[in-house]
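Hey,
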Amino acid sequence: MIELSQVDFETEELHLGGVRTEDAGLQILTRLAKRYRHEIFITERVAPDGLGEFDAICCMDSGLVVVDFKRWAGDFYPFAMRDEQICVVRERGAVWVDNPIRKVLGKTSALLREHLKSPEWASVRRAFSGQIPVHTIVCFGPTTTFDEMPEPDDRVSVCTTRTLVRAVEDRFTANPGVVGAGAQLQGLTSVWPRWGVLTTQRKGVLRCAIWRIQSSDWDAAVWGLQSLESDGRKLKLQYQSGRKLTLPADEPVYLRAYVQGAERQVRVPANTRFRWRLTGR
């Protein structure tokens, strides 16, 4: 565990650049879920224990679709999904970069291994004959182009925000559906902590999930939390249900954030002034 003072914050400019792509993609998914009401459910910016942030998880009667948004400016040379490095052409020329798809697939594999096989998922696993279908979609923003789109397979596909709806609909019809499974999956994924944005008196922002809220009165639930604000004396909590709560800010608040590439627990000392909100904006 480390202290908040030891964590480097992102600049507003860098943060907003990535968030614009995420927000645009999430708005597309929200409209899609409204069109397929009771058939496609979207869980946004969740952070399962030890795995970091998932931008979106689409819960359907045919299984789960993990959607990860990427903001890359440039044109990709042809590549295969599991290539270690890929070449992207930017303003200053061609550069080789680590393939981001491999990292996303690693997170999806860990999700299957560490969460979807846990006891609370047993009933929905049985509905799918023991194995929940999971597919990963890596979605790039409008500043990304491809000489040739990589060939999709059963585990992963690539799209842009312009073709995201078609990519999700393809997975919606790819497997036989189990009536009611989408709602069950949404219920299971929605209890995971949600990733949001923390601001303090320091410059910049920190992407993080609220892990634990303590006070001398009682500990507050983090499930369904939409915003958390401290003026140094009081903690003000607001939940997505509309419920509001005020507690004394006399105990530390604990976060989970990425620090130097690894997920760490971060301690926010009592009486610290800060604001955390669920939305990426």
